[in-house]
């Protein structure tokens, strides 16, 4: 870090209020808005410049109106028409492949998080960076910093974290035990007793006062560094769908489907089966819900038109939690929800496929979220119509939902 400079993108999210009036916001947003950050002493390793300046003219954007800020920045700005011409030329070529190294040719690597749900952005990062190495350095959450990747330049698919026992007291709930679905503390194992290959839910006791707090992350032990176990992030527990910071579980998805399907009743139709996927092949990603409709009554479901199904999409979004709706409305990090109607009999075909792969016909249940490519291909090959939410769901800062 003492050999050059870093370009950081710092994102501040909208905050909400608890019923008692306390501010609720992500930990990084809290830090970036704090006096501790804004009035920090000079540090060569954390030297930030803001707000945006006009490179060509060497002047501050007119949007900054505070006189003291303008005066302070004006003292250090210098016009650089040559650099401005380079940026304008590269960005106007239409093809943004490798744009990072075209503008900053000395760039050595990207410092990013590409595990879990963030893995969807690896192809995009490769495209814009021209294939620069990606360093995934740490594992942390709002509750606590957890661990470091001791091989930060490894391939993203090989990232494992070594947990640091001085950050908090770590315990682990085996995912193959009865305690995983309950809360039996007798099943907990400490950091020194985890086994390679097994999956555990992370449980922490922190200096800030969280006592045996279930983080909700499922980790798999991949090996050891000396005597310290190393873990791979597997998934969020009980989360079906997640695009960004949103987390939708099975019960919430069920409620949303029920609420939306009520709009079908006047048209003589109902949802007979459904499943879902977090579609991340485009950015922003979005929820895809597969519906198989059952036609009832003399109308036979024929009157269910485009407008009704679009309203069903929006109704589902209105039923989802505040974090999802904030991401849709304020952040734009999730795209409109999509309902794909599949032809009758599709879910029977899905069951036949699962049984052909060894599933028990007596214990088979329709998966409420699918990730296995052949299953997604089967569903997509049976789609008869596709519909998107026509508007943004309702969301206002400070709003909370029952599932928050």
Automatic annotation (TrEMBL):
<dbReference type="GO" id="GO:0016874">
    <property type="term" value="F:ligase activity"/>
</dbReference>
<dbReference type="InterPro" id="IPR055377">
    <property type="entry name" value="GH3_M"/>
</dbReference>
<dbReference type="Pfam" id="PF03321">
    <property type="entry name" value="GH3"/>
</dbReference>
<feature type="domain" description="GH3 C-terminal">
    <location>
        <begin position="252"/>
        <end position="372"/>
    </location>
</feature>
<dbReference type="Pfam" id="PF23571">
    <property type="entry name" value="GH3_M"/>
</dbReference>
<dbReference type="InterPro" id="IPR004993">
    <property type="entry name" value="GH3"/>
</dbReference>
<dbReference type="InterPro" id="IPR055378">
    <property type="entry name" value="GH3_C"/>
</dbReference>
<keyword id="KW-0436">Ligase</keyword>
<comment type="similarity">
    <text>Belongs to the IAA-amido conjugating enzyme family.</text>
</comment>
<dbReference type="Pfam" id="PF23572">
    <property type="entry name" value="GH3_C"/>
</dbReference>
<protein>
    <submittedName>
        <fullName>Putative indole-3-acetic acid-amido synthetase GH3.1</fullName>
    </submittedName>
</protein>
<feature type="domain" description="GH3 middle">
    <location>
        <begin position="161"/>
        <end position="236"/>
    </location>
</feature>
């Amino acid at each position: 870090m003492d050999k050059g400079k870093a370009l950081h993108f710092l994102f501040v999210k909208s905050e909400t209020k608890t019923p008692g009036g306390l501010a609720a916001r992500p930990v990084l947003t809290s830090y970036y808005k704090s006096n501790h950050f804004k009035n920090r002493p000079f540090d060569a390793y954390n030297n930030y410049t803001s707000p945006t300046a006009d490179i060509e003219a060497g002047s501050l954007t007119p949007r900054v109106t505070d006189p003291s800020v303008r005066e302070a920045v004006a003292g250090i700005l210098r016009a650089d028409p040559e650099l401005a011409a380079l940026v304008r030329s590269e960005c106007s070529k239409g093809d943004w492949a490798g744009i990072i190294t075209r503008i900053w040719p000395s760039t050595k690597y990207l410092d990013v998080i590409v595990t879990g749900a963030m893995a969807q952005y690896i192809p995009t990062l490769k495209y814009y960076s021209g294939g620069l190495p990606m360093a995934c350095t740490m594992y942390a959450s709002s509750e606590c910093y957890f661990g470091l990747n001791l091989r930060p330049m490894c391939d993203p698919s090989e990232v494992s974290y070594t947990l640091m026992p001085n950050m908090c007291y770590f315990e682990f709930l085996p995912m193959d035990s009865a305690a995983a679905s309950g809360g039996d503390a007798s099943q907990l194992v400490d950091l020194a007793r985890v086994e390679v290959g097994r999956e555990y839910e992370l449980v922490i006791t922190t200096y800030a006062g969280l006592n045996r707090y279930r983080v909700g992350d499922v980790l798999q032990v991949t090996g050891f560094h000396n005597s310290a176990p190393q873990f791979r992030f597997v998934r969020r527990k009980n989360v079906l769908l997640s695009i960004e910071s949103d987390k939708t579980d099975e019960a919430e998805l069920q409620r949303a489907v029920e609420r939306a399907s009520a709009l079908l009743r006047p048209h003589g139709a109902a949802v007979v089966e459904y499943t879902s996927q977090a579609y991340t092949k485009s950015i922003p990603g979005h929820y895809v819900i597969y519906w198989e409709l059952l036609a009832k009554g003399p109308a036979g479901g024929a009157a269910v038109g485009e407008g009704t199904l679009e309203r069903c999409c929006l109704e589902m979004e209105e039923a989802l939690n505040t974090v999802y709706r904030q991401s849709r409305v304020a952040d734009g990090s999730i795209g409109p929800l999509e309902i794909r109607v599949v032809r009758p009999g599709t879910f029977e075909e899905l069951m036949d496929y699962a049984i052909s792969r060894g599933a028990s016909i007596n214990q088979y249940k329709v998966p409420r979220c699918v990730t296995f490519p052949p299953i997604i291909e089967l569903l997509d090959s049976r789609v008869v119509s596709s519909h998107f939410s026509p508007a943004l769901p309702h969301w206002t800062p400070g709003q909370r939902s029952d599932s928050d």
